[in-house]
Structures are given as C-alpha cells and as structure tokens.
Design brief:
By secondary structure, this protein is an alpha/beta fold. It is 37% helix and 17% strand. The protein has 2 domains: 189 residues, Glycogen Phosphorylase B (Rossmann fold), CATH 3.40.50; 152 residues, Rossmann fold (3-Layer(aba) Sandwich). The protein is globular and about 65 Å long.
C-alpha cells in the first residue's frame, strides 16, 4: 500500500505523534509512506521511518505556512499512490481534489472537533479568518470517507452535517517506553502533581492553576510539575511549580514516573494521549470530562473525572486523591489494566485494516 499523508507540521503535538507512530509501524509492515508538510515545520527531535517531504518556501508564521505549503503540495505528492490522508480542513479539501484527479481514495482522519478547534482564539484571533476556517472545516467533514479517533469526535462531525465515519482509529502509547518504573527516590515528601501544559486556552492550564490555588496545602502539600515546550503564564500560581522540557519520549516517560497523580484539564479533546501515557507509567489520573478521554477513562474505575472549567470541583478531586491512598492505588491498578487495550501496535492493526477496506471500496 502506498500512502501520502498531508500534515500542517511535525511538531511536538498529538497530531504529529499519531503520524509518527502509525507511519513507522506501517513502514515496518512493508507499506510505503510519504508525509508532506510545509517547509520548516519539522521540529521533532528524531527522524521518521516514513519519507518526509517539505513543500514550499519556509515562512515563520504558522498560518501563512499552511497557505504556502498547500500551494506546492500537489506537485510534491509522489505518483501511483493508493490513498491520500489529511488531518486538517485545508489539507482535506486539497487531498480530495488530488484524489479525484488521480482516481484514488482520499481519507479525512479527524483528530478533534475541526469546526470549533480554534474557537478560543488563542491561535486565530481574526474573526474574518476564523469564519473562513469554520466554513472550510464544515466543507471538509461533509464528504467521506472519514476516520475518527473517538466516538466523541464522530458525534461532533455528524453535528456539523458531516458524514457517518467509516472507522474508529483511536490513539495509543508505546509500552516499551511508557511503563511503570521503580519507586521514586529522594527526600521530597510533597505530593508530586504532573500535568502537560499548553498555551492554548482550551487546554485549561489557567483552570488548573486556579484549582490548585484552592487546595489546602497545609493539609495536602504538593508541587506541580509542568511538562511543556511552551512559555506559560504562571503569575497567578500560589504554589510551587517545576517546569520540565523533555528532549524525547524516554525523558517524558521518566517525568511521568516521577509523579503521583496526573491532571488533564482540557475543555475538549478528540482523544487525549497524555493521561493514557501517564496511566501506563503508573500514575493515578484526574481528568476533565473533555470528550475523547471517555474512550479509555471511566470515573471511579481508572480515573476521577470532573467537569471542565470548574476549578472548585477539580480542587476537591485533588484533595481527595492526595488524602486517600486506597483510592489512589485502585485508580492506578485500573489504569494499568485498561491502557493495554490502546498500544500503538493494536491501533496500527485497525488503521491498516481500515485503509485496505477503504481502498477496495
């Protein structure tokens, strides 16, 4: 099978992780994979097994890079492909046009609520550009075939008039990297809270800070360990914070393993890999009810699930999990038991089967 995958970037993001993990496994199985991105948008700390093709001029502005990349991608897609995959509305529409011209299959792999992805205006601040983006996103979901990463993503797609998805391809984790380790060393008796911080408002980092400000540190002493590549505003924090900037997945897993509990604070997520990876490393998880996490999180079984954007409820969950070791151990055990269903090898099986099926249609 010969596949071209159109992406906006290969940065340290969930979408890029999906492309990396699935393309590496598909190449290992004998398939030919080409990932096309705008020039200068490859910032991962390692090389892929797939052929990465950078298209167009290098520009710093991420939105302009999308436009420039799209303008030159069609001329860089290798001949004789079997399928073109795209993960963002402008690329999805381009993939469909090219696929029609070549008489092959184009697949929209939805990783989130594409139509409302930028509604918090963290990245797109212009109302005109946001309106144009939403129009493109609605067009992109209204013709198939569509693959989704969760049932929540499927619901968002159909709500916007999109077609019924042709398959569910969740995200996963690598058990060779993300696994429990030995007991933590050192003399710090504070509870180690871990999170992945992002600057986008919908990731909920400000909500997490507000929640932890409400925790009684005289009874529940803790430190927040923030894993992030972004420069985050922590001026409102009234508690100790330590920042971690992992160089690779092995270091990321070590940071997870250094913690006691992982907190996921997003308003919405197509899936949500960090809490899954944290579970695999042996952490208890507190998560907002952000949609896609319901694929692998169950309240009181392998996580405590709280409503998004409710700091007081999250603060109560933090105090509960710090103060109840029996609960914490039960959630850890439940997480280790359930996460094995979401390894990248299992996900790749479903991905490969779905592409074979769609190509034959």
């Amino acid at each position: 099978m010969k596949v071209a995958w159109l992406m906006p970037n290969l940065h340290v993001t969930g979408g890029a992780r999906v492309a990396v993990e699935l393309s590496d496994r598909m190449v290992a199985r004998g398939h030919e994979f080409h990932i096309l991105i705008p020039s200068g948008r490859y910032k991962l700390p390692y090389r892929l097994s797939a052929d990465v093709i950078e298209c167009g001029m290098t520009v710093k502005n991420p939105l302009l890079a999308v436009v420039v990349g799209i303008g030159s991608m069609s001329g860089h897609i290798p001949k004789f492909m079997d399928v073109i995959i795209a993960c963002m509305p402008p690329y999805t529409l381009l993939a469909r046009k090219i696929a029609r011209d070549r008489g092959i299959c184009a697949v929209n792999y939805l990783l989130n609520d594409d139509v409302h992805f930028f509604d918090d205006r963290s990245l797109i601040r212009s109302r005109l550009i946001l309106k144009l983006y939403r129009a493109l996103a609605k067009l992109s979901v209204r013709s198939g075939p569509v693959l989704v990463n969760s049932h929540w993503t499927a619901v968002q797609c159909v709500k916007e008039g999109g077609v019924k998805p042709s398959g569910f391809i969740p995200h996963g984790y690598n058990p060779q990297v993300f696994h429990p380790g030995s007991a933590k060393q050192g003399g710090d008796d504070r509870f180690q809270v871990v999170t992945v911080g992002r600057r986008e408002r919908w990731k909920g980092f400000a909500d997490l800070v507000n929640a932890l400000n409400l925790v009684d540190r005289s009874q529940f002493p803790f430190i927040l360990n923030v894993i992030s590549q972004d420069d985050l505003d922590v001026s409102q924090a009234e508690f100790p914070i330590d920042f971690k900037k992992p160089a690779d997945d092995e270091e990321l897993a070590d940071y997870y393993r250094s913690g006691d509990v992982f907190i996921h604070s997003s308003w919405f997520e197509g899936f949500g890999m960090p809490p899954l990876e944290a579970q695999a490393c042996g952490l208890a998880v507190i998560s907002t009810d952000s949609g896609g996490v319901r694929e692998f999180l169950t309240d009181q079984v392998n996580a405590l699930i709280v409503p998004p954007r409710e700091p007081r409820t999250m603060a109560a969950a933090v105090e509960r999990i710090i103060g109840d070791e029996t609960l914490r151990r039960r959630l850890i055990s439940g997480g280790l038991e359930s996460c094995v269903n979401f390894t990248w090898d299992r996900v790749a099986d479903r991905f490969e089967d779905a592409l074979h099926r769609l190509i034959r249609i």
